[in-house]
From TrEMBL:
Keyword field: Decarboxylase, Lyase, Pyridoxal phosphate, Transferase
Annotated PROSITE patterns: DDC_GAD_HDC_YDC
GO CC terms, sorted: cytoplasm
Keyword Phosphoprotein recorded: no
Lineage: Eukaryota, Fungi, Dikarya, Basidiomycota, Ustilaginomycotina
GO molecular function ontology, one term from the record: carboxy-lyase activity
Family label: Belongs to the group II decarboxylase family.
Alphabetical GO biological process terms: amino acid metabolic process; carboxylic acid metabolic process
N6-(pyridoxal phosphate)lysine PTM sites in chain numbering: K317
Keyword Lyase: yes
Gene3D superfamilies, A to Z: Aspartate Aminotransferase, domain 1, dopa decarboxylase, N-terminal domain, Type I PLP-dependent aspartate aminotransferase-like (Major domain)
Cofactor(s) of this protein: pyridoxal 5'-phosphate
Name of the protein: PLP-dependent transferase
Length: 504
């Protein structure tokens, strides 16, 4: 494709995207295809000779798009939102145009500098203390692909930090490298990451990948599924008595199943006895609410600012920024670079050697990186902080409308966890049915029926301790309006009544 062909194809692509957004409601929310559908309609090998662009563009529309679930659809209420904006799309286009891996400041200074600037913008927008700003003496931040990648990155930093402390304390001038390596292996096998049963699988996965252990502490319905200080203390004491090494704790602000917020205040108290434990906050979904002053107490911003070692949120969920944009803020950037810096000759640069510029490769697992801050910059500038806040408040308001509709009891639906942020967890609870097993069976049936309408509305299921199987309804997609919430509620009621009737 030459420049003029690109110009024409580009205009065509933008037209197609505009058309897609104009007609998004005509698409089934969830892709209505079976596994392997695409293999049946595409050749088994890449074409030997290049093909006409028009044919490729047509095949995307006709063959690929039917296999897409429409996360931007106003009736998408599943998982958590995965929002995007036109500003973000344009940024990605530019980022693709200048495609480069930005691992060192020197390879594209703007890639590093815009990232640090926009991260400070968001840190300020979230009320994070200056200690987390990239302009501070020690703090730092970086945009990574996902909360999962962040958990692994942070766990590596936390592991190396604690191992270095142990070595410093125990090794002598006579200790050999072999002894240290052997000893590190033993210590690592005893190291535990803590979280709760509600911590996202990022905790288990990080431990699994790094050969560490993950301990999921029980939470209760009475406590709103939040991790409490007392349970944490018991877990830490039990494990220490067994000779294990607690070294990291993941607290969650906005759990996936119910939106719960761990009691960061109580955890902070407990950690006074464990000052070396790395305290990470996973606020992948709800962290963006720190942009709302009225939500900061609920998020325990004071504890975040006082104690946590690292905080992360996914701006690519509810936060409008196109995938991938997970932001990580650390109190001490050297903790990351101590664990992740490897500099062969070919990666050296004048600025890196002189330490006059930050090379972001030293704060992440991979070397190359996308120019992710461009979409953050475009979107934040175009929306302004005010527009960002309005978007979040709209999601919360629509969620409250859904909760009110549930209260009208057009069907015997019950909200089973305290509604949080823009998330409602509910289930079918007919009057007089109290048997847990019966309720579980009924709700699994309800869920199966809901899935038969996934062309019209899309929700997700979960299980909660002491409750069992239930359904999640999330707001926050920018295109959703009140009519969509009303429509969703009407469909949910219709299905609920059908399931009840069938059960009789
Ligand atoms: N943490 C929470 C609370 C989540 O809800 C999710 C995903 O929904 C994740 C982490 C994982 O996010 P990622 O896909 O960025 O790894």
């Amino acid at each position: 494709m030459d420049i003029e062909a690109f110009r024409k194809a580009g205009y065509g692509a933008i037209d197609a995207i505009c058309e897609y957004y104009n007609s998004i409601e005509s698409f089934p929310v969830m892709a209505q295809v079976e596994p392997g559908f695409l293999r049946d309609s595409l050749p088994e090998e890449a074409p030997e000779k290049g093909e006409e662009w028009n044919l490729i563009a047509k095949d995307y529309q006709e063959k690929v798009l039917p296999g897409i679930t429409h996360w931007q659809h106003p009736n998408f209420h599943a998982y958590f939102p995965g929002n995007t904006t036109f500003e973000g799309m344009l940024a990605d286009l530019h980022a693709s145009a200048i495609s480069n891996p930005g691992f060192n400041w020197s390879v594209s200074p703007s890639v590093t500098e815009l990232e640090l600037i926009t991260l400070d913008w968001t840190a300020k927008m979230f009320g994070l203390s200056e200690e987390f700003h990239t302009t501070s003496a020690q703090g730092g931040s970086i945009i990574l692909s996902s909360a999962s990648e962040i958990a692994i990155t942070v766990a590596v930093a936390a592991r190396e930090k604690i191992l270095a402390q142990m070595i410093e304390k125990n090794a002598s001038a006579e200790t050999t490298m072999e002894e240290i390596t052997f000893w590190k292996g033993i210590a690592t096998s005893k190291m535990i990451i803590y979280g709760s049963t509600q911590t996202h699988s990022i905790g288990i996965k990080a431990a699994m990948i790094l050969g560490l252990q993950f301990r999921a502490i029980e939470v209760t319905k009475k406590d709103g599924f939040a991790l409490r200080g007392e349970a944490l203390t018991k877990a830490l004491e039990d494990d220490q008595a067994k000779g294990l090494i607690p070294f990291m704790l993941i607290g969650t602000v906005g759990t996936t199943s119910s939106g719960a917020v761990d009691r960061l205040d109580e955890i902070e108290e407990v950690l006074k006895n464990y000052p070396d434990i790395w305290f990470h906050i996973d606020a992948a979904y709800a962290g963006v609410c720190l942009a709302l002053p009225e939500m900061r107490t609920k998020c325990h911003l004071d504890v975040i600012n006082r104690r946590v070692n690292s905080f992360s949120t996914n701006l690519h969920k509810w936060g409008l920024i196109t995938l991938e944009c997970s932001t990580l803020y650390v109190r001490n950037r050297v903790d990351l670079s101590n664990a992740l810096t490897v500099t062969p000759q070919f990666l050296r640069s004048k600025q890196g050697d002189a330490n006059s510029a930050l090379d972001l490769r030293n704060m992440q697992l991979s070397l190359g990186r996308r120019f992710r801050s461009l979409k953050l910059w475009f979107t934040l500038r175009s929306y302004g902080q005010e527009g960002f806040r309005q978007h979040l408040r709209k999601g919360i308001a629509l969620s409250q409308i859904f909760n009110k509709l549930i209260e009208t009891q057009q069907a015997p639906l019950k909200i089973v966890a305290p509604p949080q942020w823009s998330l409602t967890v509910f289930r079918l609870e007919p009057v007089g049915m109290t048997d847990a097993q019966q309720l579980d069976t009924l709700n699994r049936r309800f869920w199966e029926e809901l899935q038969t309408r996934n062309d019209a509305i899309l929700l997700t299921q979960t299980t909660l301790p002491e409750i069992g199987f239930c359904v999640r309804f999330v707001c926050g997609t920018p295109s959703a309006r009140m009519v969509h919430i009303e429509k969703a509620y009407a469909i949910i009621c219709q299905i609920a009544l059908k399931v009840l009737q069938d059960a009789q």
